[in-house]
Amino acid sequence: MKRSPRILALAILLATNANGDAYSVRIHPKPNETFAHADYTLWIPENVSTVKRILLHQHGCGDAAQTAGQTATDDLHWRLLAERVDAALLGSSLWPVDSCQGWSDPSGGTSRAFVQALEELARASGHEALTRVPWIIWGHSGGGYWTQRMMAQFPGRFEAAIFQSAAYRRQDLRHRTPDSADLPSDVPILIHVGIDEKGHERFGAIYDDSVLFFSQLRRQNAPVTFVLDPASGHNCGNTRYFSIPWIEAVVNRDGFDPVEAKLTLAAESCWFPNKDVAKKWTRFITDGDVFDESPPREPPRVVGISANRQGIRVEWNAKPDWESGIMTFRVYRNGTLLPPYTAPTGDTEKRTTRFREPNYSDTPRRPLSQMEYLDTSELSPGVYEYQVSLVNWAGLESAKSASASIEIR
């Protein structure tokens, strides 16, 4: 491990691999601040020599969500977005002293902790730009409330924001109408809400406030996209398949003409960064998914093959399909499809057909599946060739990888 010689605290190089570097830092509260500790993990793609923006995946409230935030930077689809927009991908795990309000209100100290974390991660990684580049923040539930308050506090730092089933009022301020007037009117915003939140005993206010907030912002002529997901509630569903291309389009919107479309549940029109995103929106609000007819363009690459008493182990690297990520991998021996790859528990008797399936909070579930396969078949002496393919969430399969062979004597 590397540790920055300039700090005593906690910014640590976690890993270096073919895909990039990961760093971690823990920020402790100052007296009278209302959070217990704030953990951040940073991942920088290997092909990004100069970080141009920070992409923060901010979890919501509750122990499950706060724990889920720990794997945000392990998500390969969000990593691919970071590569394509020259971003450092940042994941958080914020813990309250008492209730979620302790961290979801930035004035309780988490805005200070966030800025300090960026300073320490900048020193540890050698990417000084982390302290001054713009932010794109995706915030779920209470994390969406935190994102809004951060926009009000740091209006000049935001490049875009995504309010994922966001809370717009603290519980003790539910008697007040949420007001978007203190938010910058020139920052693109994506508002996601699930249809099952409408009229819900707990989350109904989120649906109502999302529509209200959208209308308020559009009356200011703010660039805001509203997505009503017909296939989810307060969970994130498949919203990443719209959020990810929306973010890329916002970053690259110079040279493209923004477009608008009528939104049936509000008087105002919906804003889109370009026509392609508007087309994806039309599909998504119909069935909660983005139509993907193309198989993954890039097959996996086998990077290791070895034999031991347990069997033959095959390891590979792969990039996710841009449109719909990675659902699973298929492993072939001498052209014949083998059973699904080993589950992340390491139990060779238990197999799975999913790879790092996103959880309620849109981060990978633990334990994390790895890109490896253990073939425990009884094999007679001979040469065996292995190939691996990638299957996206549309169920489409890539071409097979180049063969890797091993001889059993």
Number of domains: 2
Mean pLDDT: 90
CA distance, first residue to last residue: 39 Å
Strand order of the largest sheet: 1-2-3-5-4-6-7-8-9
Q: State which percent range the strand residues make up.
A: 25-35%
CATH T-level topology of the largest domain: Rossmann fold
- CATH class of the largest domain reads Alpha Beta
The rounded Rg comes to 22 Å
Q: How would a textbook summarize the main sheet? A: 9 strands, mixed
Number of strands: 18
CATH architecture descriptor name of the largest domain: 3-Layer(aba) Sandwich
N-to-C SSE string, H for helix and E for strand: EEEEHHEHHEHEEHEHEEHEEEEEEE
Task: Write a brief caption for the model.
By secondary structure, the chain is α/β, with parallel strands linked by helices.
Essential attributes:
409 residues, alpha/beta, Immunoglobulin-like, 2 domains, 4-stranded antiparallel beta sheet, 28% strand, disordered N terminus
Overview of this protein structure:
It is a single chain. The protein has 409 residues and is of the alpha/beta class. The protein has eight helices and 18 strands. It has helices at 63-68, 76-84, 101-104, 110-125, 142-153, 204-219, 240-251, 275-287; strands at 12-17, 20-27, 35-45, 53-58, 87-96, 135-140, 158-164, 189-194, 224-229, 259-262, 269-272, 301-307, 312-317, 328-333, 336-337, 372-375, 382-391, 404-408. Strands 1-2-3-5-4-6-7-8-9 form a nine-stranded mixed β-sheet, sandwiched between helices. It has a four-stranded antiparallel β-sheet with strand order 15-14-17-18, with no helix packed on it. The relative contact order is 0.11.
